[in-house]
Amino acid sequence: MAEITVQLVSVDRMIWTGQASIVTAQTTEGEIGILPGHEPILGQLKDNGVVTINPVDGDRIIAAVQGGFLSVVGDKVTVLADWATLASEVNSTEAESNANQDDDELSKWRGQAELAAVRRAGR
């Protein structure tokens, strides 16, 4: 089976490196799949995008990425993201709690804006 060498890197750390059979990524031009023997390419990663790596050994790797680039040269794929995290690193309980806090904060600000609008209208 043909393989490609893959590096998934964010600005602050090396996230994953190894051999894979396919890499898919969401780019600003659409989703792209990279197989062994792919032509050289440079693509811009989509903000709030997903990169998926199917390693030769092990489970599929899914990463959320924020900006950056994907480069294919020879038998090597480099994904350089401004920010990235693996799906396996996400604590769903903590993420849900943070989302609820954000909703509460948004409701608070929305209420203050409505109150200010009522006060301005009453002048």
TrEMBL record:
<keyword id="KW-0813">Transport</keyword>
<dbReference type="InterPro" id="IPR001469">
    <property type="entry name" value="ATP_synth_F1_dsu/esu"/>
</dbReference>
<keyword id="KW-1003">Cell membrane</keyword>
<comment type="similarity">
    <text>Belongs to the ATPase epsilon chain family.</text>
</comment>
<keyword id="KW-0472">Membrane</keyword>
<protein>
    <recommendedName>
        <fullName>ATP synthase epsilon chain</fullName>
    </recommendedName>
</protein>
<dbReference type="GO" id="GO:0005524">
    <property type="term" value="F:ATP binding"/>
</dbReference>
<feature type="domain" description="ATP synthase F1 complex delta/epsilon subunit N-terminal">
    <location>
        <begin position="5"/>
        <end position="83"/>
    </location>
</feature>
<dbReference type="InterPro" id="IPR020546">
    <property type="entry name" value="ATP_synth_F1_dsu/esu_N"/>
</dbReference>
<comment type="function">
    <text>Produces ATP from ADP in the presence of a proton gradient across the membrane.</text>
</comment>
<keyword id="KW-0375">Hydrogen ion transport</keyword>
<dbReference type="GO" id="GO:0045259">
    <property type="term" value="C:proton-transporting ATP synthase complex"/>
</dbReference>
<keyword id="KW-0066">ATP synthesis</keyword>
<dbReference type="GO" id="GO:0046933">
    <property type="term" value="F:proton-transporting ATP synthase activity, rotational mechanism"/>
</dbReference>
<dbReference type="InterPro" id="IPR036771">
    <property type="entry name" value="ATPsynth_dsu/esu_N"/>
</dbReference>
<dbReference type="GO" id="GO:0005886">
    <property type="term" value="C:plasma membrane"/>
</dbReference>
<keyword id="KW-0406">Ion transport</keyword>
<keyword id="KW-0139">CF(1)</keyword>
<dbReference type="Pfam" id="PF02823">
    <property type="entry name" value="ATP-synt_DE_N"/>
</dbReference>
<comment type="subunit">
    <text>F-type ATPases have 2 components, CF(1) - the catalytic core - and CF(0) - the membrane proton channel. CF(1) has five subunits: alpha(3), beta(3), gamma(1), delta(1), epsilon(1). CF(0) has three main subunits: a, b and c.</text>
</comment>
